[in-house]
Specification:
alpha+beta; 8 strands; 14% strand; signal
């Protein structure tokens, strides 16, 4: 077996020579954590981009496009068995919990008792397959609100949490009122998914230009702290992948629909795009509204910030 110079350098730096099989060494040398943006090509807000991996147990298709996308291999965790593992925070129990963005007034549970703790919400459901109607912005806005309210739940508790988030989503595209921000501490009674706080759900805006100009459409995050993006069948898979990336603290999940290119992995109906960032980003950076260079739409754009508020006391 022949090794690349990068692979040989990795072997020398991790002290793997003489202690690990050649096959395992080669796997680590070519792992996603050693590739730019963990194998993702371009940015998720670019029409020609491709995800770095698929982080759910089973791919939905075996066509030629899917064969080019590997399964998520654990990211930085593949380096945690070497002598260098103490250099990586993710090898020592995961990333540190971070603060919420400044001015963030994320969704809260209704009728909660307050205090820190875990509250798991249901994963966002696939929204209607119809493209945004050109009839009116009001109709599109109503459809987006209806989609948020239709999020399924596994039990009554998570149903209440999802309902709370859906209510908050109807006003996320506007700046939160100062009185509301003062009355409720975002860290006191949060809506959580695993150890991430939901900072917004089903974010929408009126498209200023492009294919959907003047219509209310979903909008996703664009930010310089972008790290990679992957595809998944559940939000929890997105968040677990972020846990395994050194420095990843924020995930923006959404459906990236393009009916004309539904054969491509990133536009496969029902699959979630998981864009990952090293900074918890506020909605002021949600300006990827789709339709800017092709007729795609962003649906159910939701933000998850790794937060100490979502760790059980």
């Amino acid at each position: 077996m022949f090794f690349s110079i990068k692979t040989i350098a990795l072997i020398a730096s991790t002290g793997l020579i003489g202690s690990t099989s050649a096959a395992v060494i080669e796997e680590r040398g070519n792992s996603l954590c050693n590739q730019r943006n963990y194998g993702a090509q371009g940015y998720p807000w670019q029409s020609y981009s491709t995800p770095g991996s698929f982080c759910s147990p089973q791919k939905p298709s075996n066509n030629k496009y899917w064969k080019q996308i590997p399964f998520w291999d654990g990211g930085d965790n593949v380096r945690c068995s070497g002598k260098n593992k103490n250099n990586y925070q993710v090898c020592k129990g995961g990333n540190k919990h971070t603060k919420l963005p400044k001015g963030c007034n994320p969704p809260h549970r209704k009728g909660g008792k307050g205090g820190k703790g875990k509250t798991t919400t249901a994963a966002p459901a696939a929204t209607s397959q119809a493209a945004p109607a050109a009839s009116s912005a009001a109709a599109s806005s109503a459809s987006a609100v209806s989609s948020a309210a239709a999020v399924p739940s596994a039990d009554a508790a998570s149903s209440d949490a999802a309902s709370s988030v859906a209510d908050a989503s109807t006003v996320t595209s506007a700046a939160p009122a100062a009185s509301s921000a003062a009355a409720i501490d975002p860290l006191d009674d949060p809506v959580c998914e695993l150890n991430y706080q939901v900072t917004y759900q089903n974010y929408t805006m009126v498209a200023p230009n492009g294919v959907w100009a003047g219509l209310t459409v979903g909008s996703a995050t664009q930010d310089a702290s972008y790290m990679t993006y992957t595809l998944a069948t559940s939000v929890d898979d997105c968040l677990r992948a972020c846990d395994q990336i050194e420095g990843c603290v924020f995930v923006n999940s959404y459906f990236d629909r393009n009916d004309e290119e539904a054969y491509l992995p990133k536009h496969t109906p029902g699959l979630i795009t998981c864009a990952m960032f090293s900074t918890c980003v506020g909605t002021e950076k949600n300006d990827n509204f789709g339709g800017q260079d092709d007729p795609n739409t962003i649906e159910n754009s939701t933000g998850y910030c790794k937060s100490s508020a979502c760790v059980a006391a």
